[in-house]
Fold these 4 entries.
Entry 1:
Amino acid sequence: MFKRFSLLVVGLAMTAACSAHPADGAAAPAYTDGQQYATIATPQRLDPKDGKVEVVEVFSYGCIHCAHYEPDVEKLEKSLPKGVVFHAVPAAFNDAWLPYAQAYYAAKKLGVKPDAHAALFKAIHTDHYPIRTIDELGDWYAKNYGLDKAKFIAAATQDPAIRQRILDDGKLIQAWGVDGTPTIVVNGKYRPTQFKDFDELNAITTFLVDKELKGGK
């Protein structure tokens, strides 16, 4: 996982997988607090008003591990049961990653198709296009999704709601104790910490989701 350099005090002021359900007759895997996952000292949800169990992926387009995890997190999202909602939150751990967080929210604001998410990972980490700045991101969205580059840059860099969202994300990520990506946070309470591969990350996540659906038991 990518270890943070320093949380961006956005002092612009700035992990079966498809379904970790056991096979018929098999015992569900048991995971232990303090070993495979950590309990967050002060639980805090991304959306306190939504009554559904939350699964949040903290990611960055700048993180190659997130690019490798993308197919697996898509499987995880599709496998989540009713009563569970998935969110992705971009981490702006450093100045190099800030444009990616701005771009994520600008693309959402401007209605870019959801498939742009995986496509951008591919462009950066598989095709090795030099996409690092807001200007380069604007070119990519304009070329591949017909976005007006000027509107994209304005939204990414000047929209006060996006600016505030990145600030709020930074505080929440810090409160969750996230220091690398990709990281999964379940209902603002639990964070998988030790896993051998992305299949196990998804399995631990599903275990924690089931725990929350059962009232934390």
Entry 2:
Amino acid sequence: MDYTIRTIIVIALIAIYWYMRKKKKEAEGPVKKSVPGAPRTAVERPVRPAEPPEVVYANLRKRAFETSPQSLGQAGDVGENEAYALIMEMGISDSVLTLACFADGDAGLYYQSGGGMKGGGAHENVRKAAKEVMALAQKAIPAMAPATGTPLLPDPGQVRFYALTPKGLLTAEVNREALGESQGPFTALFYSGQEVVGQMRQVQAQKAS
């Protein structure tokens, strides 16, 4: 076999090798290369578990207490002893219901066990009821004391009020049954808060339907 024939055979074998290699790669599919700065695929990205209800509740509650008067615009321009937000919390069985009303008419309703609603001020009936709470809060402030430390949750059967003022946080706790027996400022404030809760639940029901 002369040199020319051997050369042709070698070239043919090389061509067959590369052809078979190409077919094998096509069968395996394209190789995905990672590009710097490109988002990872869904397989590579771990799915973040949903936060438990009590964590969501704690974050919403914390945000309500951290509300500043400046964030409420002109409605937050109140005297140092006036409330720009009122938070009412009710201990119910093994949970807590937190209602937050603000001077601009916004309101939020949060359940420790999960669920609730924020942005209630976008609805006229809620906004009107929330502003009524703020008007009654001014009458209850003289009977409230400065709060110290982290705002505490009420025990079952108890209702705790928090007034956010430019001067500081004020609070008072009342037994739920006592509210139905007296005619003091907290009784009016409690039932006004219940009206906000009712209006917000009605909005939720309308959305659900």
Entry 3:
Amino acid sequence: MAGSERALVCLPTYDERENLVPILEAILANLPGADVLVIDDNSPDGTGKLADEFAAREPRVKVLHRPGKQGLGKAYLAGFGWALERDYGYVIEMDADFSHDPRRLPALLQAAHEADLALGSRYVPGGGTVGWGLVRRIISQGGSLYARLILGLSVRDLTGGFKCFRRAVLEAIDLGTVECTGYAFQIELTYRAVRRGFRVQEVPIVFEDRRVGQSKMSSRIVVEALRKVWSIRFSGFGRAAAPRA
């Protein structure tokens, strides 16, 4: 891809050494022509060093080192800023643990060409989850429903982190003022995009629990995020922008 058609996959990592090489290889194979930015938060297990070694032999892989763990949202914001400083027309965010299937990357990118923001959705026909217990399913689906009702959105999966943004979306939603850094970060970005008049398309995905390592998600994180929904609701972005031409 050249010029405004170039795509960048933002891949935050923290102690993902065992997953890193397989996920990079899968992304590169499934999205030819795209680049990958590994955003490592000084992982104690050496993930950052391994990323540097991989990038040294693969020019499509870049590495952004951060001094320490500051939260997933801040890692993504750093990656988005890096992308906007360069000539990328599409920016994708995804997890490094295979919970987001790299084989769905082409569909996600294609949807962003047709809309403005493409969301990998567990809660549309064809989507789903694997390896989740009843409590986790209730928390996730209930959280999305709660946020939808409070924010007045029709998007069914507000809490997912597998997304593809057109460059214009990231430029318009004022990344420097994003308040949330944890689980609610995903809700806030989608809300801001919708309130700026951008089109959102949900792409069905099957979310699978991480293959290697320990999940960083907990019910405490989700509950805290749901409290943040009210802050999002009464932010300046509560006022809808005029529809885009």
Entry 4:
Amino acid sequence: MKNNYQTISSYHNSQIKLLEKLNSKKYRQEEKLFMVENLAIIYDALKDGFDFEALFVTEEFARKNSEKLEFLEDNSQLENFYSIDQKSNNYYSNLETPSGITAIYKMQENKLDKNSVIYLNGVSDPGNLGTIMRSALAFGFTNLVLDKTCVDIYNYKVINAAKDAIFKLNIIEDKTGEWLENCKLPIYGTDSHSGTALAKFIPAKVFCLVMGSESHGADPEILKRAKENIKIEISDKIESLNVATAAGILMYQLRITN
């Protein structure tokens, strides 16, 4: 650790209180801040130019991860870092075993580009959302729209599943349904039992693909807007696919057919 560290030795410190408050979605939205407790995500984000607003590390973490910590110190524009004790880390951490490192980031003001859009309706499982985000990044889908029934993208479980995709995608919320209502792109729904088989489906160059909830699929009212439904043909020994698995298959296939 270098000398530009402020030492925090009490969980009553205002910075530790801030971290604890960032566990609340309401507070995150008010402050436009979120935190990450994962070295790999923090490291990869900074490599790609996504800097943090504050960094907190324990002495034990610093001893075990000196090389990567030095990279963070040397490549961040931040001037002051925080050295915290284990008790403070335990106080605010979401993790069963706190990692010893935490970064605070500003939420990005995202706008969609002119590429295709993945629209998520009722995806409530954090792991599924994070996996969909990683698949979207892997297969070149840069735009994600989440309706109000989806889990918060800054939930720590979502971030841990999404990795650095949280920084690299254009993600907006459609809290009122207005975005979908005004969407000019051809909308494609997904259905386990009916629709055009994915292997035979030919998409438009740019489109909006709707993925529904884990247990019920897409809302029927949303599917009424669909130009066409797509079906992934599966064995009759299973009823349906996990939404993250289905999304990955669809994004891969629609990418290679475009």
